[in-house]
Prior knowledge:
mainly alpha
Amino acid sequence: MFIGHFGVGMGLKKTAPAISLGTLFIAVQLLDLIWPTFLLLHIENVIIHPELSGNRILEFKSYPYTHSLIGALGWSVLFGGIYLLVKKNARNAFILGAAVFSHWALDFFVHFGDLPLLPTNNSTHVGLGLWGSPMVEIIIEIIIFVTGMVLYLRTVQFKNTLGKVVFGVLIALFVLVQLSSTWGPAPASETALAWSAQFQWLFVLLAYWADRNTKQVA
């Protein structure tokens, strides 16, 4: 699950038009934005299987703090709480907290039973394993992404050509990264994977940039 998470972020703009698309992207992808740094710090780890293909290349050996159920709930409360303190908007804070947790919820459907419930080594792990049916999973993910994009474009109006161009670049990058992650070669190492995953912050920056060049549809 990759573009599906960002699809949720775009779709939530309809529900909370006052929240920047960049902030929504941070929320829905927060667990995966933190995860690469945790890999670099050796707090969590992943095993790479270059002999395999598709979604089986990565074996998520340990990520109790970013991807456990309790961890996801904690990050949700933290992110929503910070927004509430800064913006004093309880409704939007709740939406952002739910957006953070949506990441774990979507991962639950696709992961191969590797999501821990508790941030402990002996926790029960869950996941429905939709990755085992890659065509079904990618179709569902495309539906979520396209639906979110349509909802976003129905919620905002671009004020200038720059906004349209930046948003177009953003969508093109999503497609390229999705194709690369699905059919591209395995990462050379855990460290290489962690650094490449930091590329996701570019999506956040582009989302803020594009959204600044929009106005809400009346």
